[in-house]
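Subgroup meeting minutes
Present: P.N., E.W., G.H.
Scribe: E.W.

1. P.N. recapped why we're keeping a running log of single-chain structure predictions: easier to compare across weeks, and new members can see raw inputs and outputs side by side.
2. G.H. added today's entry (306 aa).
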Amino acid sequence: MKKEELMKLLRNPAKYRKEKQQAKQAASPQAVADRAARKKQDRVLLGIGIGVVLLVLATVMVILSAKNRAENLTAALDPEQVKGLFVEETEFDPSAGAVTYVQVREGQDRNVAVSNLGSTLPIISRFNYRSFTPTNYEIIGAAPWALTTNFASNMSDPDLMRYLLSNDTMIKAFLAREDVAPLLEDPQLLLAFTKDNTAMQEFFDSDTVKGVLANEKMLRSVAGSRFMSYLLISKSAKYFRDRPQEAAAIISSNSYLDELRQNPNVQIAVKENPYLKKIASVLLAPAGGNAQKQAVPAGSKTAAKK
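Output recorded in log:
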């Protein structure tokens, strides 16, 4: 026995024996395994604690983020700040060819997909009209059924539609369409169009057109719009305005136009329109009345004064 251990034994025999016994136990395989198990358990508990803390922090972040979004909702929906309410198609070329089919897929963005165009139809509203660009108006005017689709989305807002119908970019794009321009340039083509029963049925059987005709305020907004003025000063429309008797005969011979003539809302709109009110009594006359009178020959003095 070494001198140091002998001195410990002499000073405190009980403590010396206890320390020896603990040293033997610590060196046993079971003691080593117990210590390893305790360390492993400590690491697992530490990992669980850290995971709980991270989960709580993530939950708090989500709540704060939702709160911020809710507080900024009004600002986020300001059309002057958010430009994503419509699609600006800068490469749209209305002269590239007429679109023959429109597939309506209106959602939260209030846009409508246009087949064969690779773009969308912007739908105007009180919410987004300030952020509309010239390209948006051009698309509405140039794409077939685009104007009708905008009417369908704003049937209860005649003032907004009159605003749309006052936009020169939209009007010029509409008048330049391949399926519109020839009708406005050639009175005979316009007459042939009125005799196309399929075209008449497709137009007048539209729920949107029926809705407009049944809405006095909407119809008066359309009839008194800048858009309607452009149509009425076209070559074809002027030809028939100068010959109201001939126009009345065409109306009486067409079941759709004759029904249109009898619509009280249409009668009010015709009488109020600055281009039509002087000939309203002839255009609105029942079949067999003034419509049977002979048309004034083109080029006569009477015709020249009109």
